[in-house]
Amino acid sequence: FAEGGITWRLLNVCPEMGSWTAVFDCAAGSSFATHIHTGPGEYFLYKGKMDIRGGEQNGGETARAPGYGFEASSARHDRTNFPVDSAFYMTFLGPLAFLDEKGSVIANVGWFEAQEAWNAFLEQSGQAKKASAA
Ligand code: ZN
C-alpha cells in the first residue's frame, strides 16, 4: 500500500473508538497507494513535505513541516507523495480503504489490521510483548 520506502510504528489503538495512531517515516520519492479515509483523521507533519492529491502544483494540497492537517471522513487520496524525506504522526478514526485502478476496495486497514501487522513485525524482530497497544 506504499512504495519507495515508508516505515511506520504503531503507537496506540483504541478498539472502542475504532482509532489508531502511528508515526510514518517517508523517504524522498515515496508514496501511498490510492485510498479513502473511511473516517476522519488528524496529522502533524514534523519533517519534510507531503503532496496530497498531487500537491499544489497539480491542484491538490502541499503540507509543509511543521504543519497540522485534518482529513475529512470520505476524503479520497489518489496520490500522496513525499518529494523529500518526511515524517508525520497521525490518528485515524476508522480504516483506510485502499482502492485498485477501477476504484474497488482491495483492503481495509484499520486498528485491527494495523495491530496485527505491528505485532507480526515485533515478533519477527524479537521485540514481542515489549510494546503494548491498548
Ligand atoms: Zn490520505
Which helices and strands appear, and what pairs or packs with what?
Blueprint: E1 2-3, E2 6-14, E3 19-26, E4 30-32, E5 35-37, E6 41-47, E7 49-52, E8 61-64, E9 67-71, E10 76-77, E11 80-82, E12 86-93, E13 96-99, E14 105-109, H1 111-124
Antiparallel strand pairs: 1-4, 2-3, 3-12, 4-11, 5-10, 5-13, 6-9, 6-12, 7-8, 7-11, 13-14
Zinc ion binds near residues 35, 37, 77 and 80.
Protein architecture, described:
This protein has 134 residues and is mainly β. It is 10% helix and 50% strand. It has 1 helix and 14 strands. The strands form 3 sheets. The chain has a 5-stranded antiparallel beta sheet, with no helix packed on it. The chain has a 5-stranded antiparallel beta sheet with strand order 2-3-12-6-9. Strands 10-5-13-14 form a 4-stranded antiparallel beta sheet. The longest helix is centred in the last third of the chain and has 14 residues, at 111-124. The radius of gyration is 15 Å and the shape is globular. Residues 35, 37, 71, 77, 80 line the site of zinc ion (ZN). Zinc ion (ZN) binds at residues 35, 37, 71, 77, 80.
